[in-house]
Design a protein that fits this description.
This protein is mostly beta strands.
Length: about 100
């Protein structure tokens, strides 16, 4: 339920995709949960978290040229608080922190 960690995760995803960040806005809800958006010149990344369910929904929309996908199309990308970075569900590390 940390706005800073959620923001850092989305900015890290934008960096991993070689996207051009032009702004961001995040909101922490009073009880729990964070919503946010990172505006990139190629489109945007957005997130909404439900800590009570251990769940976050992330949308990544891009157009034009972007960096290569850090995971294979059959592997989910996960953000690890313990490792403080992105990794693939099959434990292939996406980006060294």
């Amino acid at each position: 339920n940390s706005t800073r960690r959620v923001r850092d995760a989305l900015l890290s995803a934008a960096k991993a995709g070689d996207l051009t960040v032009v702004g961001d806005l995040f909101h922490a809800f009073p009880v729990q949960g964070v919503s946010g958006v990172v505006l990139v010149s190629e489109s945007h990344l957005s997130i909404h978290t439900w800590p009570e369910y251990g769940y976050a929904a992330i949308d990544i929309f891009t157009c034009g040229h972007v960096g290569p996908a850090p995971c294979t199309s059959t592997s989910r990308a996960l953000y690890s608080l313990a490792r403080d970075g992105w990794h693939c569900a099959d434990n292939q590390l996406l980006e060294e922190q």
